[in-house]
Amino acid sequence: MVQPHRQALLIIDVFNDFRFEGGVALAEQFRPVIPMLVLLLEHFRGWGVPVVFVNDNFDCWHEDMHGVIAYTREVGHPVSREAADALMPRQGDVRLLKSRHSAFYRTQLPALLEHLLVEELVLAGIAGDACVLTTALDAHVHGYKVAVVRDGIASQTPARNRRVLEHLHETLGMKTPSVEELVSRVPREGRR
């Protein structure tokens, strides 16, 4: 029997090689976000809320999530290893690979969320102004309530991060809570 969940936490592209134009700047903006994501993960896991890691496959078409993480650790920026050490998926977390920006594009995410009866998505990860943004827009189009964690995302500059959060809030009414605001709340569905 399926355990229905009101919410799911999507962690987007946190395993990254940062080997692209602007990658070093993104890595440096992402570094202080890693401990915030650790808190977020502990909170959602503690309440039994589904945690879904959706990550770029970096053209490693023959690899699973563990292979992609190993690749980013091996060839990536030092922040790649920090993220892998701190944020490694655990048993019970769902792992999906994607080949484009949105976590919805040609992945099993829509079927998974339907199966879990999810109504609300909480998004965190990188880059705020690219993959998080496109995932948030697609989630909205699919009819989900969406919150983007304002201190749980990073873009190449703080200004780019602010612009995307303002845009999502102003144009689509998406909430942009902080990690502290989220972890201080008791989920409505309770612990299972």
Structural write-up:
The protein is an alpha/beta fold and 192 residues long. The chain has one domain: Rossmann fold. Helices cover 44% and strands 18% of the residues. The chain is built from 8 helices and 5 strands; from the N terminus they run βααβααβαβαβαα. Strand 4, helix 6 and strand 5 form a beta-alpha-beta unit. Helix 2 packs parallel to helix 4, helix 3 packs antiparallel against helix 4 and helix 6 runs parallel beside helix 7. The chain is globular, with a radius of gyration of 15 Å. The C terminus is likely disordered. InterPro entries: Isochorismatase-like_dom (IPR000868), Isochorismatase-like_hydrls (IPR050272), Isochorismatase-like_sf (IPR036380). GO terms for molecular function: hydrolase activity. Keywords: Hydrolase.
Radius of gyration: 15 Å
**CATH domain class name:** Alpha Beta
Straight-line distance between termini: 14 Å
Question: Low-confidence spans: pLDDT under 50, at least 5 residues?
Answer: 188-192
Q: Quickly count the helices.
A: 8
Shape: globular
Count of distinct strands: 5
Number of structural domains: 1
Structural class: alpha/beta
Protein name: Nicotinamidase-related amidase
Domain Isochorismatase-like: 8-169
Keywords: Hydrolase
Pfam family, one: Isochorismatase
